[in-house]
Amino acid sequence: MELKGASLLYTLATLMVTFAGFSALLLIVRQAAGASLSSLDRFLTRTVVGHLFVLTAGALLPALLGLYELPDAWVWKVSAVIFGLPYLILLLTFPHRRRAATGKPTPQIVLATFVGLGSITLVAMIGYVLGGFTYQAAAYATALNVNFFALAFAFVIALEVILREPKDDEPKQ
Fold it and tell me: Does residue 171 lie in a domain region?
């Protein structure tokens, strides 16, 4: 029997991998248009692709654990911890890593949505799943969805900042 919510998680994993390729492609197009890659460009690409692969692994992990014929409740508990805790650490360390890589602070809107909303959702999901409440699959899938769309939102905000930067041959004002 297939794990509850598996088709949603597979679809989400497909969307995540597609978005990773799309986001990297956008920055390559920007470079092809004559702009060199800034520290923000490189950090953004590493962050988006790296976070999307962690999210994709989180989407595939329950199905992988299901192959070991673990009880569903254990699949969700183990998945919540193995995916949730490392991703929570990635989110909470993001502002420091961004400042170290670019020398600039994280915009408040990105802190609120990507780091704040993403972290709160993960903590709630981990607590909910480990608490043994019903609809563990739904809680897990919700945390993945919220974090995916928070990352996509943060990417759009960062892209807006990057596209406002002058090309190398344009004078800075």
Answer: no
| Radius of gyration from C-alpha coordinates of the chain | 18
pTM, 2 dp: 0.89
Q: Within a 10 A sphere around the Cβ of 163, how many other Cβ atoms?
A: 10
Distance CA 152, CA 23 (A): 9
Count of CB atoms situated within 10 Å of the CB of 69: 7
Nearest to 44 by CA among 159, 147, 153: 159
In a domain, 52, yes or no: yes
Residuewise pLDDT in 10s, the chain (173 residues): 688 889 999 999 999 999 998 888 877 777 777 777 788 888 988 999 999 999 999 999 999 999 999 999 999 999 999 999 999 999 999 999 999 999 989 999 999 999 999 999 999 999 999 999 999 999 999 999 999 999 999 999 988 877 776 655 555 55
Residue 169 in domain = no
Total count of domains within the chain: 1
116 Cβ contact partners less than 8 Å away, ≥ 6 residues apart:
none
